[in-house]
Design brief:
The complex is a heterodimer of chains A (107) and B (122). Chain A is built from no helices and 11 strands. Chain A has 107 residues and is mostly beta strands. In chain A, strands 2, 4, 5, 6, 9, 10 and 11 form a 7-stranded mixed sheet that branches. In chain A, strands 1-3-8-7 form a 4-stranded antiparallel sheet, with no helix packed on it. Chain B is mainly beta and 122 residues long. Classes of the chains: A mainly beta (107), B mainly beta (122).
Chain lengths: 107, 122
């Protein structure tokens, strides 16, 4: 199984801050990396797929990038509705595995 | 509008069984592979199973293989998860999730249901 890691596990930020979340794969997964946002009591929501493609309807302040087996989710200017937990997921191999999550809360 | 509505969760005893359902609407159901993903209380996400659009291919996480069966009825636009030999560690919210594209592999999950809670306890 491909064990995904994420850092940090949590962060505190203010509205307007630039937030960077990193996900790392232990082997090459090409660009088969997705990012999801989950708010308490709600289902996950797809933000970015194929490492850098913004899902329809997702604000452009979200972006994703890849450098080898390292992947980054950037929120350029944090908004009140962005406080949530973010998960990366590899869909390169079965079983599809998720990172442990990064909780973004209010500073 | 795509909608996925899970049902069938509840309390089950260890060793017991439950069948979850996911009613789909708003897209050509038979064209998309479907998944079950679960989340234990306060924990992260765990992919459980995948079924192709036609239902002829299925995939399972090792943690559930042999105890859980995914199936679908395309005439009813419904996805199922038959859960047998339930264990305490199966306690979780179970989400159904739709593949973005038509293939079963290499696809993100673009729509999720609201989830149904399964509690395994004596």
């Amino acid at each position: 199984d491909i064990q995904m890691t994420q850092s940090p596990s949590s962060l505190s930020a203010s509205v307007g801050d630039r937030v960077i979340i990193t996900c790392r794969a232990p082997q090459s997964i090409s660009t088969y990396l997705n990012w999801y946002q989950q708010k308490p009591g709600k289902a996950p929501k797809l933000l970015i797929f194929a490492a850098s493609t913004l899902q329809t309807g997702v604000p452009s302040r979200f972006s994703g990038s890849r450098s080898g087996t390292d992947f980054t989710l950037i929120i350029s200017s944090l908004q009140p509705e962005d406080f949530a937990t973010y998960f990366c997921q590899q869909n390169y191999n079965v079983p599809f595995t998720f990172g442990p999550g990064t909780k973004v809360d209010i500073k | 509008e795509v909608q996925l509505v899970e049902s069938g969760g509840g309390l089950a005893q260890p060793g017991g069984s439950l069948r979850l359902s996911c009613a789909a609407s708003g897209f050509p159901f038979s064209s998309n592979a479907m998944n079950w993903v679960r989340q234990a209380p306060g924990k992260g996400l765990e992919w459980v199973s995948l079924i192709s659009g036609s239902g002829d291919k299925t995939y399972y996480a090792d943690s559930v293989k042999g105890r859980i069966t995914i199936s679908r009825d395309n005439s009813k636009n419904t996805l199922y998860l038959q859960m047998n030999s339930l264990r305490d560690e199966d306690t979780a919210t179970y989400y159904c999730a739709k593949n973005l594209g038509q293939w079963e592999l290499l696809q993100p999950f673009d729509y999720w249901g609201q989830g149904t809670l399964v509690t395994v306890s004596s």
